[in-house]
Predict the 3D structure of the following.
Amino acid sequence: MSHPMESPEFFRDPYPLLAALRERGPVQQVRSGPHGATWLVTGWAEARTALAEPRLSKDTTRYFADKPSRRNLAPAVSATMLATDPPDHTRLRKLAMKAFTPAAVARLEPRVAETAHGLLERMAARGGTADLVEDFAVPLPIEVISDLLGVPREDRAALRRWSNDLFAAGAPDTIDAASHAISDYMTALIAAKRADGAGAADGRDGGAARPGAPGRDLLSDLIAARDEDDRLSEAELVSLAVLLVVAGHETTTNLIGNGALALLRDDALRTRLRQDPALIPAAVEELLRYDSPITTATFRYAAEPLTLGGAEIAAGDVVLVSPGAANRDPARFTDPDTLDPDRSAGHLSFGHGPHHCLGAPLARLEARIAFHALLTRCPDLRLAAPPAELPWRHTRLMRGPAHLPVTGAG
């Protein structure tokens, strides 16, 4: 049985296919193979249940241990915190969590706003014609997460390129090569920060910590947790660093890109938000529901048999949960294909349960500031290409425009 999520039509607009699958039932088998079936969860209630279901494991190392593979993914990418179950997941999440509390994120607001307005100033200086993805939606979250982690400015373009390649659907060699490139980079950056910290500690810097030395950024804090308290293995440290830099910008880039496109296609909503910016946080939630940055959540499999949405799922079967589909389930949302910021029902774009997105507070802050800046500073912003001709990223996991040409930027 072929996978239904591999066509250009799906990348451009997945919602008709997801709706058709959901009409057949909220949990549908989409593939069968030598290692069992693959199920797609499209109903809201069933997706919410599955996301918090302890019998659905995320431990990819355990799943693939006895299965042949031609892949050459770097362990730091194939075995991240996203691919672990409690208690390891709980321990790793706790180490990273303090950087993403609401209070910690609130302290980042001035830097996020400064970055957003700086990007718009650069677009205005070029005459206001821009690619809103490459010139705004990509660099804004990359700058913020790189600042947070202590990634040198000159390395950020390469990180963006490798991260983008990790989601190249149908290109396993590209994905594998990118996984090693980003893993090797983070291994070297950790070594450099550790050496800088040692230099500061033994007085080679006159007692002053250099930029990037432990205590100056989140990555240095994680190095300290590894070196002092031994709460992280070296492999876990590299893996967590990779996950934070990738997850810390990819979804937000797509949230800003999808949201900006939706606003550019809705003059009335754009005017309403410009006149009443207090509505922007609610609009961000509805944009997250309407066009989720995540079409399909990361890998899960049944550690033991279970029944979900009337489907009998065998031990070893793969279960793919689709927040994109669940967020448009008419059983949960009235008129789900309509953008309506006055809704109150919750979306699943940040997941649910133990793996609820750690960076959700930061993503919300970045999106709120990004949309406020675009609405207030760019009242004449317009699409420079027909919506039907826009290119979309070729990945089943993420959803976002690859380019978004506009005029009136900045």
About this structure: Residues 234-264 form the longest helix (31 residues).
